[in-house]
Design goal:
Layout (H helix, E strand, L loop, with lengths): L1 H21 L6 H18 L2 E6 L11 E4 L5 H9 L3 E5 L8 H7 L3 E3 L4 H16 L4 E3 L20 H6 L3 E9 L17 H10 L3 E7 L10 H16 L3
Parallel strand pairs: 1-7, 2-5, 2-6, 3-4, 3-5
Antiparallel strand pairs: 6-7
Length: 243
């Protein structure tokens, strides 16, 4: 069963490649968003990951905002995109991942070399332009994945984009649960775990549920970026019941 599911994932990736190469160049932004949402939702179904999305007002907020979330797995991008497609900021090394890196790039992912101040400033300026154009921008302020039950400090640099663009921050709390409602260990993507290792663990898992919780918008008016980052972290930590 795992081998069959693995082959289905490969075929789905090939379909994504074909769509990105031959359909995206001729699709308007609204059509691309539909394609990304449908492809991401189909990937979750193939992986047998149930999507459990919860919203403040019963549906995703459509207000222009900077989206942030805690970071557990490579799956996180596709969980969010299955609900509300975003242009994600991701580590530059993801671009080098076979197939998946290219797909992320074609889906509008913005790659950043962590630790390079000039690179951070360039990306931040690009985020402001994107937000003002109406793009939905998202990033993981922990800067790397953390094991479920943990929440790393939030890096505050990119929160400056929300302040400069004059938009609120929309936090999402994300976790992966088993059939009993406990944190599912197969979702963890930390340490020396490779993408293939993670994929195989997810394929072998049973009853995994990706729970995405939309939290109230945070108005950054009058706040410094560090304060805004701290407000977002506290909101997500409270939703996840972590420290």
């Amino acid at each position: 069963m795992t081998v069959f599911s693995f082959l289905r994932v490969l075929l789905h990736l090939l379909q994504g490649l074909a769509t990105s190469a031959f359909v995206f160049p001729f699709a308007n932004p609204a059509r691309r968003e539909v394609l990304v949402r449908n492809w991401s939702a189909a990937l979750l179904r193939i992986l047998r990951v149930q999507l459990d999305a919860r919203f403040v007002d019963g549906a995703p907020s459509q207000r222009n905002a900077l989206v942030v979330a805690n970071h557990v797995s490579w799956l996180d991008i596709f969980v969010v995109n299955a609900v509300q497609p975003c242009h994600f900021v991701a580590k530059a090394d993801i671009r080098n991942w076979p197939v998946l890196g290219w797909l992320c790039e074609k889906a509008g992912t913005i790659f950043i070399a962590r630790g390079r101040q000039r690179e951070v400033r360039r990306v931040q300026e690009g985020l402001v332009v994107g937000i003002l154009r109406g793009q939905r921008i998202a990033f993981f302020p922990e800067g790397t994945t953390s094991a479920q039950g943990e929440l790393l400090p939030f890096h505050s640099n990119l929160f400056e984009a929300a302040i400069t663009a004059g938009v609120p921050v929309k936090p999402y709390a994300l976790r992966y649960l088993d059939a009993q409602g406990a944190l599912h260990p197969a979702a963890n993507f930390v340490g020396e775990t490779t993408f293939v290792d993670s994929l195989m663990m997810i394929l072998k898992a049973r009853g995994m549920r990706a729970q995405l919780i939309e939290l109230p918008l945070i108005d950054g008016t009058g706040l410094q970026r560090r304060e805004l980052a701290q407000h977002a972290r506290l909101a997500i930590a409270d939703a996840l019941q972590t420290g």
